[in-house]
Specification:
The protein has 192 residues and is mostly beta strands. Helices cover 0% and strands 44% of the residues. The protein is built from no helices and eleven strands. The strands form three sheets. Strands 4, 6, 7, 8, 10 and 11 form a six-stranded mixed sheet that branches. Strand 6 and strand 7 (105-106) form a beta hairpin. The protein starts with 26 loop residues before the first strand and ends in a 7-residue tail after the last strand.
């Protein structure tokens, strides 16, 4: 409710005010504005006008993740460099929410003890433009713990359409993708 405190509106005079409101969720939001005026003789007049705001459905998003190792085989105890490459073709920009590896843990964690030379730790909340390819790398030591069976690990990325560093009071639209990489061992590990 707005109240005038600066005198009168006379003749062809016009008073204007503005206000804003946030709408969350798609749909049609009708609203009505009412005005009441009073003259010096305490006579009143009123009017109203209606307007509606259309909030469209939020666009779906996608993400594609590729995981590659810098070698196909290693000796047990050697270091492998993994490269994660990701991109999307969504109609809106998206942000990185999660990047994990099922063997090496949270790749966005700068204190992750399972990896070294981790450039992925800086991409939490990173804005990914549509059609642009992004990548990060990390090193991990592979130990043969299964009599020479190949080491297989899976990376997962989760992205959303809202900035996770400044979350609004609505749930984001999210997308997830995974990719695996396999590295063989050239020598079997120690046996008991």
């Amino acid at each position: 409710e707005l109240a005038a405190t600066d005198g009168s509106v006379g003749g062809a005079d016009t008073k204007t005010c503005t206000y804003s409101h946030d709408y969350f969720g798609s749909g049609d939001y009708p609203n009505t504005a009412d005005v009441v005026v009073t003259d010096k003789e305490e006579r009143t007049a009123k009017d109203q006008d209606k307007e509606s705001v259309q909030v469209p459905e939020r666009a779906p998003i996608d993400i594609e993740l590729l995981k590659d190792a810098d070698t196909e085989t290693v000796n047990s105890g050697e270091t492998v460099t993994y490269t994660l490459t990701f991109s999307h073709a969504s109609s809106v920009p998206v942000y990185v929410y999660e990047l994990t590896d099922d063997k090496f843990g949270n790749l966005l964690n700068a204190s992750n003890p399972n990896v070294t030379n981790n450039t992925c730790e800086d991409i939490y909340g990173k804005l990914l433009e549509s059609g642009t390819e992004y990548s990060c790398t990390f090193d991990a030591v592979l130990v043969d713990e299964d009599d020479g069976a190949a080491h297989v690990n899976e990376a997962t990325i989760v992205v959303g359409d809202l900035d996770p560093k400044d979350p609004p009071p609505i749930d984001p639209v999210t997308a997830t993708d995974t990719d695996t990489e396999t590295v063989g061992f050239t020598e079997a590990g120690p046996t008991e």
